[in-house]
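Before relying on records like the one below, remember that each one covers exactly one chain. Contacts with other chains, cofactors or solvent are not represented anywhere in the record.
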Amino acid sequence: MATFRIYDYCNQVLAFDLRHLVDLLAPRSLKATWVVSPVKMHDSRNGTSFDEFMVTGPGEAGQLEQFAASGSSVSGDVLSKAAHEAHQVIWGEFTAILPKQTVAWVVIRAIDSTFYEVTSFDEAVLSAIRVAFKDVRVAPGPATSIPIEPVPKSFQLRLHEEALRLLQDKNVATESRSLPIPDPEGGPDDIKVTFGSYELCIYEDGANVKGGSIDQRFEIYDFDDLDHLRRSVLTFIDSLKVS
């Protein structure tokens, strides 16, 4: 079972909604039975818990709220129609069970219009999410409490893992830690790797290697894409003489 968080934004708002996920997972999403419910969260700051379900939109948008209030199951076709008539799902949990199955096939959760979570054991679902969206992050599990712990972007995780592997192959000792940064939108922490007299800081969309007289910055606008940037960072680290 894996949980992905999707953060694709356009003009500072999510660039997709529930309807896009239901469409992406069709035709199985239309054949599934769905249960609509509020998101249950615990506030670790004051010890309280709350249930939250919120949808905006004209006309039949309230149908999703009715489903959540009743707790009854609905067909995939009915859910799809209600999702398409809603403008935006701000909070909500949507659990799908396929015919002749007893366990959840997929759970979709809208979290405060900040990101969507998709949890599934089905590799076809996970692969479809990876292909369809740009900013997909692997979470340790569904968010259950606030403040919500941020998770690194896949770029950060991959560069971190490959830098550690490169340095370990060179028998260089390393130390890694996260660097929390203030971010009202819940952005990921920076990742810092110390090796020899150098430090590698990995950001959402860039990196910096510094130590001694070196302060080499890798900014996204200097490269074709993040993959190009990642390879350049690794090549630079490999060229360093580290004792």
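The CA atoms of residues 36 and 67 lie 6 Å apart.
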